[in-house]
């Protein structure tokens, strides 16, 4: 049996650095607590060199220039912990969630898949680095030995069976996480290293420190025995970031979203998954100033505290740049009306799309690229004006609705044995007689044009609309359609197909005045409910 | 100053190095693959719509432009090809198009309210690629507005579809793309056909108190005159396309080719159970 432990040193600091990669390489100090009792809780090496120490109060730390100071972020720590667990699960299904900064993996039987323990350790370190983490990895036959070695030794450590006591002996006793009282007692005794603790007689230690002393003695010798406490599998892909300074504009917001999406996509990729939907939740701060209401008008409603948006994707994706572009387009179309204090992103995981193109199949649209194009088009003309039309189950003239454009890929297969070429196959398909008839198409006017009709014996003789008057030289109708009388949206139309000759139509054609009003075949109708005539469209 | 042609040539090649691979090398035009328009007469006239090229269809209102578009859409969508229609005036009728054989699921319809939106949408769709058929419908946009479009838009469109499998069709009232169009088709409306039921048939249709009029008229169809104004389609490929359709196909010359086809009215009225004929028709 072998166990691997992963420990993230300076966990709270690394959590902030993961959320703000721009801080890497700079002096950073974190403080925690409520003002005015805030104090520094974590610093990196650069900040230490600059003179900042843990425990300094806010006014003391504020004197150091060139040091980035941030608040401790528990949401970032939680996100990082979940990411750490998910990363561990990509290597081993049996995993212990020891503490926020430490996990233990059971490596039993994994050598067939991953190879030697060295390879596993390197793979763990590599995957952690992909998340932006610098971790310590230790592998040992004992759970606690691996745990303490990871906490005590930097980088990758292997402890062979039988050498546990010897290797752990160099570690300070505080690595075993004793209580403060016991640690003080041990320090008074002059015991500072694990080998010194292991050298003490167990019986006398038990008399003085109790069972806690015995447990520490076992840990120091690497002789403790316990089972792995398995963590429940929870596949949550969420990223959060709390902002010290509220964001007001979309550009810096997109920058932050990009960072969170990068993290999400790395985690999804580690599980060979992709996002089927992205949920964005923004916690809003102060609302943007609006013009005061005019006297007599009702005051504006209270601004919402949250802004939520869900982006459903036609196919699972994990390209962070593409997802960012889609989110940006949605935010541009419907921006939040207040400053942003907190960003939370969650991905609904799904299996990644696998597609195999055929040699003889015409290239179809890449669904990911198509989604981006449609999002841009929706941003340009409005989301209700882009998509596939779908006719509705009603007799109402011209009733349709728009739905998401999701074309069926071309599945035509061409048999090479019979020598069919693509052109020949196309031609064969095109030769079907049922598709060879041309039909007169109607071009609709949206909204319909209001018209005035002169009738004689209930038949239209003259028509005028949009400032033009014409003679109806031929007509067919009326054809009555009615329906939905039991609803508010009832209709009652008497339709006519008419040929109009405008009084000066030829002149208008020549002079290109109102291009839309020309002689020709039109469809008009009398709306029995509104008691008016309308021009529905023109045949073309 | 270069002293001779060779020096001038090398100087130009040097100036364009890195941007144009071989500026003086003749690039042979690739044989275009033509696809059916869905109307036999137009296929025989033009050889079909060329892929990787810009086709321009122009004519006044009621000249059959939309009928030709719907036929082409029906043909392309029937083969599960992805099509896009950029509708500058939001005039497309999906119900009639579906009845005419268009698979609406394969059609991306972009409903624009002005020509600038239509041009930007076309740019997006062409640059994105992957669509088999893209149509920019400027039929109802005033001629003056279309005329004022910058010429580089047409060049950009042509360049975007070059060496792709996309058919780009632009429908308008008069030709504007000039040399960027590989095929320019002019349409004009002809006779309007009305069918009249015979009195004998009508007299048999008496039901209850309702009496049919002396005659009933239906819109039967519309004749459309089509002519090729310009065609760069390889005559050989045009002949190949016609192979098997007619043996005595028109020769490969691209000018003065005309044909007439008839666009039939949709026989929807009497197939719809809820539609009730109320009165007859008349001649004005």
Describe the structure.
The complex is a heterodimer of chains A (540) and B (284). With 540 residues, chain A is an alpha+beta fold. Chain A has helices at residues 11-19, 45-50, 58-62, 74-89, 111-114, 117-130, 143-152, 164-168, 180-189, 194-198, 202-209, 211-221, 250-270, 320-333, 367-381, 422-430, 505-511, and strands at residues 3-7, 28-32, 39-43, 68-71, 95-99, 102-106, 136-140, 156-159, 237-247, 273-287, 306-317, 338-351, 386-391, 400-403, 442-456, 459-465, 468-483, 491-502, 520-527, 532-539. Among the domains of chain A are: 3-161, Reverse transcriptase/Diguanylate cyclase domain (Alpha-Beta Plaits); 443-539, no CATH class. Chain A contains 17 helices and 20 strands. Chain A is elongated. The termini of chain A are far apart. With 284 residues, chain B is an alpha/beta fold. Chain B has one domain: Rossmann fold. Chain B is 29% helix and 25% strand. Chain B contains nine helices and twelve strands. Chain B has helices at 5-15, 40-46, 65-78, 94-99, 115-128, 143-147, 151-161, 199-203, 235-242, and strands at residues 34-35, 49-50, 53-58, 83-87, 107-111, 133-137, 167-172, 183-196, 217-231, 257-264, 276-277, 282-283. In chain B, helix 5 packs parallel to helix 7. The N and C termini of chain B lie far apart (77 Å). Classes of the chains: A alpha+beta (540), B alpha/beta (284). At the A-B interface, helix 15, strand 13, helix 16, strand 15 and strand 17 of A face helix 3, helix 4, strand 5, helix 5 and strand 8 of B. Strand 13 of chain A pairs antiparallel with strand 5 of chain B, so a sheet runs across the interface.
Gross morphology of chain B: elongated
Count of strand segments of chain A:
20
Helical coverage of chain A, percent range? 25-40%
Strand content of chain A: 25-35%
Distance between the termini of chain A: 80 Å
**What are the segments of chain A in which pLDDT stays under 50 over at least 5 consecutive residues?**
412-422, 505-515
Our estimate of the beta-strand percent of chain B is 25-35%
- How many beta strands in the DSSP annotation of chain B? 12
Q: What distance separates the N and C termini of chain B?
A: 77 Å
> What's the order of the H and E elements of chain B?
HEHEEHEHEHEHHEEHEHEEE
Cα-based radius of gyration of chain A, to the nearest Å: 36 Å
Number of helices, where a helix is a run of at least 4 consecutive DSSP H or I residues of chain A: 17
Give the overall silhouette of chain A.
elongated
Any idea what the radius of gyration of chain B is? 24 Å
Any idea how many domains of chain B? Answer: 1
> Largest interface, with Cβ-Cβ < 8 Å?
A-B, 85 and 94 residues
Average pLDDT across residues of chain B? Answer: 79
């Amino acid at each position: 049996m072998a166990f691997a432990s992963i420990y993230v040193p300076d966990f709270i600091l690394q959590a902030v650095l993961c959320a703000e990669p721009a801080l890497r390489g700079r002096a950073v100090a974190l403080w925690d607590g409520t003002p005015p009792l805030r104090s520094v809780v974590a610093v990196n090496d650069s900040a230490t060199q600059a003179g900042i120490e843990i425990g300094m109060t806010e006014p003391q730390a504020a004197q150091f220039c060139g040091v980035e100071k941030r608040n401790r972020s528990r949401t970032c720590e939680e996100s990082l912990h979940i990411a750490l667990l998910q990363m561990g699960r990509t290597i081993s299904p049996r995993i212990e969630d020891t503490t926020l900064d430490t996990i233990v993996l059971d490596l039993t039987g994994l050598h067939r898949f991953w190879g030697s323990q060295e390879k596993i350790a390197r793979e763990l370190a590599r995957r952690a680095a992909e998340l932006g983490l610098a971790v310590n990895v230790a592998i040992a036959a004992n759970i606690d030995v691996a745990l303490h070695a990871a906490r005590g030794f930097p980088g990758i450590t292997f402890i062979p069976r039988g050498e546990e006591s010897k290797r752990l002996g160099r570690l300070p006793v505080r690595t075993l996480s004793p209580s403060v009282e016991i640690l003080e007692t041990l320090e008074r005794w002059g015991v500072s290293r694990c080998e010194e603790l292991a050298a003490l007689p167990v019986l006398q230690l038990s008399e003085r420190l109790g069972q806690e002393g015995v447990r520490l003695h076992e840990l120091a010798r690497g002789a403790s025995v316990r089972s792995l406490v398995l963590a429940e599998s929870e596949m949550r892909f969420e990223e959060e970031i709390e902002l010290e300074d509220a964001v007001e504009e979309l550009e810096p917001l997109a920058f932050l979203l990009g960072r969170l999406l990068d993290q999400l996509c790395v985690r999804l990729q580690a599980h060979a998954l992709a996002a089927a939907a992205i949920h964005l939740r923004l916690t809003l701060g102060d609302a943007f100033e609006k013009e005061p209401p005019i006297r007599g008008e009702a005051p504006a409603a209270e601004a919402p505290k949250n802004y939520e948006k869900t982006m459903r994707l036609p196919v699972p994706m994990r390209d962070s740049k593409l997802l960012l572009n889609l989110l940006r387009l949605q935010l541009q179309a419907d921006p939040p009306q207040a400053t942003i204090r907190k960003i939370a992103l969650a991905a609904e995981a799904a299996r990644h799309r696998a597609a195999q193109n055929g040699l003889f199949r015409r290239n179809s649209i890449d669904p990911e690229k198509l989604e981006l194009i449609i999002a841009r088009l929706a941003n340009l003309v409005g989301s209700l004006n882009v998509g596939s039309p779908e006719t509705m189950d009603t007799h109402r003239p011209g009733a349709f609705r728009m739905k998401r454009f999701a074309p069926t890929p071309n599945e035509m297969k061409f048999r090479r044995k019979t020598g069919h070429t693509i052109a020949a196959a196309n031609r064969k398909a095109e030769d079907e007689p049922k598709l060879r008839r041309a039909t007169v198409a109607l071009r609709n006017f949206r909204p319909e044009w209001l018209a005035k009709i002169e009738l004689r014996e209930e038949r239209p003789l003259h028509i005028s609309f949009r400032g033009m008057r014409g003679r109806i030289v031929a007509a067919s109708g009326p054809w009555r359609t009615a329906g939905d009388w039991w609803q508010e949206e009832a209709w009652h139309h008497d339709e006519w197909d008419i040929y109009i000759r405008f009084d000066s139509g030829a002149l208008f054609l020549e002079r290109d005045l109102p291009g839309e009003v020309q002689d020709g075949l039109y469809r008009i109708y009398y709306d029995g409910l509104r008691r008016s005539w309308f021009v529905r469209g023109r045949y073309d | 100053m270069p002293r001779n042609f060779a020096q001038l040539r090398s100087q130009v090649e040097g100036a364009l190095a890195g941007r144009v691979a071989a500026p003086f090398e003749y690039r042979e035009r690739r044989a275009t693959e033509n696809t059916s328009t869905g109307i036999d007469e137009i296929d025989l006239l033009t050889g079909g719509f060329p892929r990787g090229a810009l086709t321009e269809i122009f004519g006044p209102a009621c000249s059959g432009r939309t009928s030709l578009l719907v036929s082409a859409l029906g043909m392309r969508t029937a083969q599960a090809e992805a099509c896009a229609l950029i509708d500058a005036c939001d005039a497309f009728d999906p119900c009639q198009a579906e009845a005419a054989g268009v698979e609406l699921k394969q059609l991306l319809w972009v409903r624009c309210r002005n020509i600038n939106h239509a041009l930007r949408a076309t740019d997006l769709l062409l640059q994105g690629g992957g669509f088999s058929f893209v149509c920019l419908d400027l039929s109802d946009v005033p001629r003056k507005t279309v005329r004022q479009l910058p010429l580089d838009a047409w060049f950009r469109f042509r360049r975007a579809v070059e060496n792709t499998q996309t058919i780009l069709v632009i429908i308008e009232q008069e030709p504007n793309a000039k040399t960027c169009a590989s095929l320019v088709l002019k349409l004009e409306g002809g006779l309007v056909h009305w069918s009249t039921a015979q009195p004998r048939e009508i007299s048999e249709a008496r039901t209850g108190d309702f009496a049919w009029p002396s005659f009933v008229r239906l819109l039967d169809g519309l004749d459309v005159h089509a002519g090729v104004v310009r065609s760069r389609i390889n005559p050989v490929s045009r002949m190949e396309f016609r192979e098997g359709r007619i043996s005595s196909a028109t020769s490969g010359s691209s000018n003065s080719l005309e044909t007439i086809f008839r666009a039939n009215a949709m026989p929807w009225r009497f197939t719809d159970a809820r539609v009730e004929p109320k009165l007859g028709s008349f001649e004005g």
